[in-house]
Amino acid sequence: MRVPLYAGVRPLPVRRPEFNAGLWYDKFFCYWKDNEWSVEEGKENREKSGKIKWIEVAAISPVGDQAMLNQAIHRTATLVLALGGEIRCLTTDWRFVTGLGREHPVENGFAWHHTLGVPFLPGSSVKGIVRAWAETWIDPPVSDDVRRIFGPDGEVRDKHVGSVIFFDALPVKPVRLEADVMTPHYALYYQQDRPENPPGDWYDPVPIPFLTVAPSQVFLFALAPRRLDDEQGRADCQRAMEWLTEALAAVGAGAKTAVGYGRFVRQEKEESEIRRGLTAYDVTFTPAADKLSGVPSGKHVPPAAMSPLRAEMEEDGYNRDPDRFMSALTTKWLKKLQDDQTIPDEKREIAVLLKEWYLMYRGEQWRRPNKKNKAKIAEIKKVLGE
User: Domain CRISPR type III-associated protein spans what residues (predicted)?
Assistant: First the structure.
């Protein structure tokens, strides 16, 4: 049987690091039986089924490109903080799975970010989690606040948007995946339109594999007030973020939360690193923001946590002008790495920042140095002990 692929495209049973993992996982499944549209089954000699093979191959190595994730996280954090919003990093306390209801040959789907090729939680799902928590678990009830923050429910005639914007939750680093299995014992009973056969112990259990996000994977959650000059909206944003943190720790997100999947706990260390990565040039204030902050129009506010070395690199074009910074890297920063007068702590900080810059703006050169960059990258790795 011919696999349904574009002309000239071969089946790809192994995912390469440069692939968009989501595109590969959804479109290139290749464990079909010969001459029929069904998936290979396991053999009596314990050979694995096509479903398990595909999921295990998907989970062999982390998914996502660090440079692309850095840019996405940087843009999201910059936008949200410029709007007066809140960012928070939370890590998976155990496994997390989203998108099981999507169609896929392995029977259970998976939600992939279209461009980044990583698992994510859509902003609409984040909003639904927080609203359900506020409506169900908050005591005393806060129905007026819920309508203001999230908008009215579907039965109210007075339609309006909520005061808070909910962004997609994105992973901070490439994501480790794991294969898992659910084993329904009463498949025939569940498949009946009318329950004529009872759920008896004589049914055979049917193992169904599915793909999950592994524990200890960090995601960035972000909320922002809809109107920048609205003090109530800013307060609502802070309150919604607290509700979100509580909901993810107590109830969880995604599928199978009733059996412990989808719990998240706060990761303040990652939050601090993201904030330190923002620069004096990252947050451009609108007139409304200038008025709220007391900053003269058109100026920028550097984060208090930015180190002097990072601020100096920003002056050299670290995030604004990669070509300009490449020149400074060659003529200035590499010399500081090689200078015996530079203290070890400063050398390491410089090396870390230079590596991050390469991964963000010259990722291919870092992974496969050419003659021009080989010595530079070797010097950075030498200081980092890589």
Answer: 97-264
pLDDT attached to residue 157: 66
Give tens-digit pLDDT for 300-351.
Answer: 434 434 578 888 898 898 877 888 999 999 999 999 999 999 998 899 889 9
Is 220 a member of any domain?
A: yes
For residues 234 and 95, membership in a common domain is answered with yes
Q: For the chain, how big is the Rg over CA atoms in Å?
A: 25
Q: Is 79 within a domain?
A: yes
Give per-residue burial for 98-132: e unless 16+ CB within 10 Å, then b.
Answer: bbbeeebbbebbbbbbeebbbbbbbbebbbebbbe
The reply to whether 242 and 367 lie within a common domain is no
Residue 349's closest CA among 362, 332, 337?
A: 337
Q: What residue numbers bound the domain in which 261 lies?
A: 64-277
The confidence band for 197, taking pLDDT boundaries of 50, 70 and 90, is confident
SS3 92: strand
User: Does some domain include residue 158?
Assistant: yes
Residues 167, 123 contacting (CB under 8 angstroms): yes
Q: Supply the angle between the helices 66-82 and 268-277 in degrees, to the nearest 10.
A: 80
Mean pLDDT of 47-62: 89
